[in-house]
Input
Amino acid sequence: MSQILVEELSKTYRIAERDPGMLGAVRGLVRRRWRTVEALSGVSFALERGELVGLIGPNGAGKSTTIKILSGILEPSAGRCEVDGLVPWRQRIRHVARIGVVFGQRTQLWWDLPVIEGFDLLRDIYRVPQDQYAATRDELVALLRLDRLLRQPVRQLSLGQRMRCEIAAALLHSPPLIFLDEPTIGLDAPSKLAVREFVGRLNRERGVTVILTTHDMHDIEALAERVIVIGGGRILADGPFASLRAGVLAERRLFVDFAGEAPALDEPDVRVVARDGRQLELAFDPRRIAAPELIARIVAGHAIDDIHVAEPLIEEVIARFYEQHGAGEA
Amino acid sequence: MTNALALYGRYVAASVRAQMAYPASLAMTTAGSLLGTVIEFIGIWALFQRFGQIGGWRVGEVALFYGLISVTFSIADMTTRGFDVFGSVFVRTGAFDRLLLRPRSPALQLMGYELRLSRLGRLAQGAAVFAIGLAITHEHWSVGAVAILAFAMAGGAALFAGLLILQATLAFWTVESLEAVNILTYGGQTAAQYPLNVYAGWFRNVLIWIVPIGCISYLPMLAAMGRADPLGTPSWLLPLAPAAGFAFLGVALFTWRFGIRHYASSGA
Amino acid sequence: MSEAMRGPRTRSGDGGVAVRAALRPYLAVIAGRFQLTLQYRTAAFAGFITQLWFGVIKVLIFAAFYAGGAARAPMTLGNAIDYVWLGQALLAFLPWNADPDVAEMVRTGAVAYERLRPVDTYAWWYARALAWSVGRVAPRAALMVAFAAVALPLVGLGKWGLGPPASPVAAGLFALSFVGLVLLSAAITLVINIVMTSTLDERGPNLLAAPFVNLLSGLIVPLAFFPDWLRPWLRAQPIAGLADIPFSIYFGALSGLSAAGAIGLQFCWVAVLVVVGRWRLEAAMARLQIQGG
Output
């Protein structure tokens, strides 16, 4: 059975509208005007234990609504959702004891307390037995290299250090399912790599199910075997990232450094994207012309210094995908 | 239940340690809290040295009323900070979601948010004024009277906590102008510094039937002093009156749960 | 901070009037900040309700004291009630805190950057404080006067409301003393700002200011109720000018020469505080520039 089952999930908000100012506020008390906003409509998917899924989409697409429903803090308007056999918002307390949540933009640690004391408090909040707690904590401290941070008050940590502590804090009760909401936002490159590496190991070696939302496509590229794209409250795509790329932007790039001035190339099925002195950047569709064939043709006609094929940048793929589905930010 | 108490104890210890991280700041806020209330009492003293009495009560007796409500209010003010800042710190920023993501009651987590040590300043001042009142009035205090006062303080802390919980509940709908609830907490506290019989009838009724501050200060204090109510409340009722504070807290907690349900379905 | 950053708003180029050019940034910050403060209407309304409620409690307590011994009081119950409503209406003039923006700058260490403005820091801060307090008080005072001086008499509760000034002369003197109150309020706010800047401590001065201001202004109890031997001292200190002096003039407890003397004292205190304040602020700023704040 799937660990997470979501069927036809919908969420509509009613937003009270009022005129600005005191008069508007008073009038709003008497008669309210409501506007209905559909945050999610008919979202369905299933997740198996041990999957690592990237949940992506433009701002306001419904990602955080989905996460809030899955984690039990929001009740949907319609549809079914079960996590490990529990309905998150109905059996909230039991449910949240078994999940871990990391918000990249907020802290769950206590600002003025040393990290270790926050951990101890979480042990009591989650009722983790002492010996189990000590073992988990020591392991996390070793894996995330926290030993020198534990005695420092949270407010003194850098963002990267704090994020490592946040991740440890969310895992102290050994949840089999974790939600990571933009865990790499604002981090420098080494911290991003450290977070990605840890999350990957957690998933591969412990079989922890991970749901990751992010705007950093390198997180997705590095971690997620499966991507769910949400836009306008619906699922636009659900599958391996490679197939998403193939469907959206089959095009590849060929970079050619000529021995002399770059020539005016006239090949069928090939488009010149950029020209820079001796270099040409070419775009081609591998379904129409295979890369080896194209290279052979160019090498046959010209003196070449260097040549290499590249895939389009992941940001480009996603931006193109949103564009195709009209899912850009409203 | 014991488990919840143990966790609350953990929270309190953590909060105390966090405040101890800034000893100078703590000393200063405590001194400020003490100074503010001392000066407030200087005002009351000035009025008494002009008028001699109010509604048949002399300064020593009013000191007892003042001391009781001051101690009660400081205890409530110390413990309910989480509810007081609920709108600005938890709802507006979305931090309340974090509390819902933990397998414990949100009310317990908010209680544990902060134990405001600085309010010990007001508490000390209230206790000192009470002691002065005792010295002036030469009241004789039986064990029963002390028990009644302890009950009154507990009921009073429950009442003020209930008011703060209602304020926090309102925050699920709006975070604007919540400080207006201060007229019930601070305002009620100020009103209860004097015995209720000095006030006009309509105001007394507000303080007994709507926000039952009289039930946790005036009425039990009469019982502890062994006086009859000049307004004719049956004397058997006087020591029981603080129960109204617990009833108020119960109603407030019920409303609070309703607010949480609203939050979960509206996603505020 | 934002309205200050917007900079001068008045139009330039109307003939090189040097004084006007020199005053321009200060007038601009007054206008901008006043408008900004006026926008906080819900806060003003909540403030009005709170002050109204505490006013009711104070009136009830005075009534109870007077019921038992009016003869020993230094003023009539009617005067005491006027005093309460004036105090509630003008409460936001009491300088309980430093300018919140200055406190923020001290906290973040940005206060030394005030030196980057091509203006006199004291005058700049004074202009801000003035606009801020007037903007905060205006809506609250209007509502409170409408309630206490108009609504209460209309429903037949006039004796619990705010009566008119004692005489046309008293009204004129009150207006003068009111100007002194407003100027003094800003000057004392500046004292707190300056203590904060000199000590680089944004909490202490705020904590200590309010209790003393409340007591010494007469807000807690009119100064006349304190023992007679204390009264000359209480009246002479600067904070009396924030409430006790103008209010006593309003209902005629201070009149004629003694009123004129009291008003003179108010303005003297303004002058002293401004001169000493500016001197101390320059010293504090110079120290910050040397130490690098």
Notes: The mean pLDDT of chain A is 86.
